Structure formats: structure tokens, C-alpha cells
Amino acid sequence: MSAIAAGPGDQLKPKIVATGLEKRYCSARGGETVAVMGVELSICAGEFVCLVGPSGCGKTTLIQMMCGFEPPSAGRVLIDGEPIQGPNPDHIMIFQDYGLFPWRTVLGNVVFGLEALGMSTPEAKARAHETLQLVGLSAAAHQHPHQISSGMKQRVAIARALAVEPSVLFMDEPFAALDAFTRLRLQDEILRLWEVKRTTVVFVTHDLDEAIALAQRVVLMASSPGRIQRVMTIGLPYPRERTHTDFSEYRRELFEAFHLLHATAANSAV
Amino acid sequence: MWHRLGHWLLPVLILVAFGGVWQLIALFYPPALFPGPTATIEALIEVAINGTLWSNTWISLVRFFTGYGLALLIAIPLGLLFGCVGFLRRLFDPLIQVLRPISPIAWSPLAVLWFGIGSAPAIYIIFLACFFPMLLTTITAVKSVPAVYLKVARNFGVGSGMTVLLVILPAAFPGIMSGLHIAVGTGWIHLVAGEMLGAQSGLGYMIVDARNFLRTDMIMAGMLVIGVLGLGIYRGMRALEDLIGRQWGIGV
């Protein structure tokens, strides 16, 4: 099992390069908080990378800077060699709370992104139908978001993003609000879509199992100040069996890295 | 079955009981001082037959919807502007907060001075009564548009003008609608006050005119018409709000 040939889209061309990335906030009392500092990260085209860490480690700040929603205080992010100036339809962010427009139907939500790019309505509708079929939501096309389940809502948000064919998908804890069963189904779903589309995916999560199941590389972050602690390559072939012993070994390694093992378990050999 | 019946029947029974109590009290006073429901209905039939009821109701509705419509045309765009641009909102907030608590009725001497007598001061009073509820609810509705909607619009490259049209306006619509709803109430309440400023027509004038002739039964008839019409407009507004709520997927 080779650690490098882990995924289908594993090319060595750098897609996203972050250098000396730093974010400071001025607090109300005049002091300064360092949210993220000294981030050096290079992500290959077509790679699936997870950012993992406890709350307050700056993983959301980092992904917001990479997507262009937050300007960095120092350092820069390059995507395809171009510095990021702001959000861009080529790099779509998926949010935990979906960001679906409740007054539009499922189809209307997907059409929104396409029409924003200047596509004509009939063309946008045709493309939206195709994308909804890809995520298995054709039957719900004419329903409103309040009529469908949370898992379906997130699939609509994913369809809305994929419809505009972005080269990077940023996902900020997209499945954190879903129940365990739906979360597992959507993890498989996003892997399937990733293999079809070969999009570069940067995925923030605090769920260690989710990171091992999805990522080719897991970026472990630590807090105060938020920084990258370690980058771990997950050399497991897809589809990954969550109950397999190899999976458990990575699990143990991640737990160890975050000091989550109990004293007795840490001492015993695997 | 009983539940359904109670739903309609009980409120009607309460109205009937109210009429009964009213009639009972009226027995103890001279009709010129405290007319009962029968005297009021008789007065109502009288103006219905001679036609003044219809012409006065019509002119009152025209004035109401003119004032209301003007307030809507100015307050909604202004509310969108203040809601979107925090800088302008902070700039104008003290001014709004000073003008808002002044009762529209306090403006009435000036309204007559500026606009003379007739429809204009009445429309102005109704406009003022509708304007501030509309403006403030629109600002609040725009401010409470979830940030994630705006992020999505930015991410897909939607410009600021189109964001207002395609995202902020529809997202704030239910909130704006509740402002329009409140304004119907306050505007209608101030209709009578506006029409007491020397207007020669309208439901408010009907009451003033009846007072000059000591026709207390006619005063009550005017009040009754205003109440019933108010209920009708309010119900119509609520039906519209429910319809939009269903469309927006909220309040169901």
C-alpha cells in the first residue's frame, strides 16, 4: 500500500499554496488575538485534504482565508498561482447551515449560481437538473428547502456548488449538524462526487473518523495560537472500511496526536 | 364537530352578547346621550339609503390607500438602504428616534397650515402613521438577513445591486410584510384624526358632522363602519401574509 498513490486525483501540481499565513483580530478591549499564525500549506490539484482540530484552533479562519472571505493579516494564499483577492465562483464554499434560499425551490437554488454566472435560464435549468440527478435529488427539484430533510438540504448546497464546476470545493464542517447515519451516507456521497468530478476538496471537520474516512491528507491543527501541528497522510485505498484494522491504526495515531488516549490505552502496545 | 362549531359560533355569540349588554345599558340613558345598537343600525340604514355612507367610505379608503402607498414607496427603499449600509443607519438613527415617538396627531396643526383643508392633511397624517412602522421593520428585517445568504451571493459572484434584488429583498420580505401589516393598523386608526382636520367628506368627517348636529346615533354608526372596515383590511392583509409565508416556507 503506497502512501502517495492514495487517491484518483493525486497529481503533484500544487493547486493551493499558503505561505506565512496569519490572522489577527483586534479585541474590543484593544488587545490583539492571534487566530492563526505561520501557516505553510500546499495542496495538490484534485487532492482531498481535511483540516482537523479542536474548536478555537483556527481551522474555520484558515478555510475562510483560503476561500477569500477573510483577508489575511500577513502572508498570502495562491490558487493556480494567483493571489486570492476575494470569493470567486471557481472556489465554492459549502457551509454547515447550507445557505439555501428558502424562497426558492431546490431547482431554483441550483439555478441561482448558474444565472449569477450569466447563463440563460433554459440552459441553467437543464444544467441544474443534470446536477440534481448527480446528487440523487431529481425527485425533489420542485420542493422548497423547508420540505426536505437536513441531509437533502446539504446535498442541494453541494449540487448548487458543483453545477458551476468549481476547481476547488471548500467545505466548512458541512456535516456537523447532521445525525450520525446521514453523516456517514453523505461522506460516501462526497467521495463518490469527488471521484467523478476530480475537484480539489478542502474539508474542515472536528470529527476525527470523518477526516480518516475522507482525506488523502489530514492537517492537524492546535490552538492558542491557531497553527498547523502536523500533516498526516492517510494511505488507505478508497472506499475505506471504517471497521477495518488499518482504519483503527490511523484512528489511534490521530487520537494520540491530540492527546485523547487514556493513560492505560496509551501504554499498551497495539 | 363541537370544536368546529365553537370556532365560529362562540366569537359570534360574544358579539351578540356585547350588542345585548350595549342595548341594556342604553335603556337607562336618553338616546341622544347613549344610543343603543338599534338606533345605530337605523342611522346606518339612513346613510346607506341617502348614499352618504358609500361616498364617505370610498373617499376614506382612497385617502387611506394613498397615504399608505406613499409611505410604502418611500419607507421600503429607505429601509433597504439603511438596512444595507450600516454607516448611513448610524448617521440617521438619532433623527429617526426623535421623529418616531411624535404622535401623528401632534402634526395636525402644522398639517393644516401646510396643506390647507381637505384630503391632503388627512393623507399626510396617515402617511406619518404608516411611515415609521414600515421603515423600522424594514431596517430590522434587512439587518437580520442571515450572513450566510450574503456569503453565498458573494461566492457566486453576484454584484451588490443584484444581491439586494435577488437575496436581501426576498430574504427580508416576511419581515417587511409584518411592517406593512402593523402599518395598516396604525394608519387606519389615524384616518379619523386626519379627516377631522376640516375635511368635507370621509368617515371621520361623517363623525364630526354628526357631532355638530348632535346625532350621537350617527357618531356610533360611523365608528361601527370604521371598526368593520378595519377588520376587513386587517383580515385581507393577514391572508396575504399567510400566502407569502407559505411561499417562503416559513410560518407554516
Describe the structure in your own words:
The complex is a heterodimer of chains A (270) and B (252). Chain A has 270 residues and is α/β, with parallel strands linked by helices. Chain A has a domain at 1-90 and 169-179 and 200-242: P-loop containing nucleotide triphosphate hydrolases (Rossmann fold), CATH 3.40.50.300. Helices cover 34% and strands 25% of the residues of chain A. Chain A contains eight helices and ten strands. In chain A, the strands form two sheets. A six-stranded mixed β-sheet of chain A has the order 6-7-8-3-9-10, sandwiched between helices. Chain A has a four-stranded antiparallel β-sheet with strand order 2-1-4-5, covered by helices on one side. In chain A, strand 9 and strand 10 form a beta hairpin. In chain A, helix 2 (106-116) crosses helix 3 and helix 2 (106-116) packs parallel to helix 4. Mean pLDDT of chain A is 88; it is low at 1-10. In chain B, helix 8 (160-195) packs parallel to helix 9, helix 8 (160-195) packs antiparallel against helix 10 (216-248) and helix 9 (203-212) runs antiparallel to helix 10 (216-248). Chain B has helices at residues 2-26, 37-50, 52-84, 86-99, 108-115, 119-143, 147-155, 160-195, 203-212, 216-248. Chain B has a single domain (36-248), classed as MetI-like fold (Orthogonal Bundle). Chain B is an all-alpha fold and 252 residues long. The mean pLDDT of chain B is 90. Classes of the chains: A alpha/beta (270), B mainly alpha (252). The interface between A and B is medium-sized, with 25 and 22 residues.
Mean pLDDT of chain B: 90
Structural class of chain A: alpha/beta
Count of DSSP strands of chain B: 0
Fraction of residues of chain B in helices? Answer: over 70%
* Chain oligomer state: heterodimer
Shape of chain B: globular
- Top-tier CATH class of chain B: Mainly Alpha
Strand content of chain A: 15-25%
Mean pLDDT score of chain A, rounded?
Answer: 88
As for the CATH topology of chain B, it is MetI-like fold
Biggest sheet architecture of chain B: none
**Most residues in contact, chain pair and counts:** A-B, 25 and 22 residues
Largest sheet of chain A: 6 strands, mixed
Count of DSSP E strands of chain A? 10
Count of individual helical segments of chain B: 10
CATH superfamily of chain B: MetI-like
Could you state the CATH homologous superfamily of the domain at 1-90 and 169-179 and 200-242 in chain A?
P-loop containing nucleotide triphosphate hydrolases
Low-pLDDT stretches of chain B are none
